[in-house]
Every structure is written in structure tokens, then in C-alpha cells.
Design brief:
By secondary structure, this protein is mainly β. It is built from no helices and eleven strands.
Length: 126
């Protein structure tokens, strides 16, 4: 069982930056790829970014490429999402997800995941 807790969301103007954190209850760097999803009001949950075990590779949704960066800090069992050049369309609840152990980094279907955090709200104003 892995518990995930996101933090770092908030209100920001367009063009601004935020850094989200996802703290895991157990060590994940050697076991789990880690992922960020988001869900805007009235829309389906969508894949944002992924980082493989040991952080050797990353994947991004086309809508965030070049603006968002995912990273992981093994010593803190934490994954980050650095979000730059934010746009109003980035407004959503952002979720951290992982598991099972063999899930490929960048799997886009939310139903494939075992563990989710509670989410953190990001609001970007124009």
C-alpha cells in the first residue's frame, strides 16, 4: 500500500510558475514509475507527466511539453512537477498516481493505476 500526498497548488497569474510536490509513504524510486494527472471541471482526468523508476526517463503530454518538468528526489520519496509559463487552460486539480509495479511510465489511462493522492488545486488567472 502506497499513500500519496500532493501539495503546492495555488492561485497564479498566466505566465507564472508553481511547483507541485507528491510525497509517498514508502520508498518508490526502485519500484514505481510516478505520474501526474489533472482534471478540470467537466472534463476527464488526463495524463500530464511521468517519470520512470530511478528517474531515467520522462514523458509529457503534448499540451505541457517545454513548460512542465517532472523530477524525483529519492531521499525524500518525493516527486515534483515544476510548472512554468502557466496558462488558464492549465487550471485543474492535479493528482499524483502510481502502481502497480509493472506499469509503464506514461500510461495514460487513469483506470490502470492503483494509488492516487487527494489532489491539489491549481488555478491560473488571465
Amino acid at each position: 500500500q502506497v499513500q500519496l500526498r500532493e501539495s503546492g497548488g495555488g492561485l497564479v497569474q498566466a505566465g507564472g510558475s508553481l511547483r507541485l510536490s507528491c510525497a509517498a509513504s514508502t520508498r518508490t524510486d526502485s519500484t514505481y514509475a510516478m505520474h501526474w494527472f489533472r482534471q478540470a471541471p467537466g472534463k476527464e482526468r488526463e495524463f500530464v507527466a511521468a517519470i520512470s523508476r530511478f528517474g531515467t526517463s520522462t514523458k509529457y503530454a503534448d499540451s505541457v511539453k517545454g513548460r512542465f518538468t517532472i523530477s524525483r528526489e529519492s531521499a525524500k520519496n518525493t516527486v515534483y512537477l515544476q510548472m512554468n509559463s502557466l496558462k488558464p487552460e492549465d487550471t485543474a486539480i492535479y493528482y499524483c498516481a502510481t502502481g502497480p509495479e509493472d506499469i509503464a511510465a506514461g500510461t495514460t489511462c487513469p483506470h490502470e493505476y492503483d494509488y492516487w493522492g487527494q489532489g491539489t488545486q491549481v488555478t491560473v488567472t488571465s
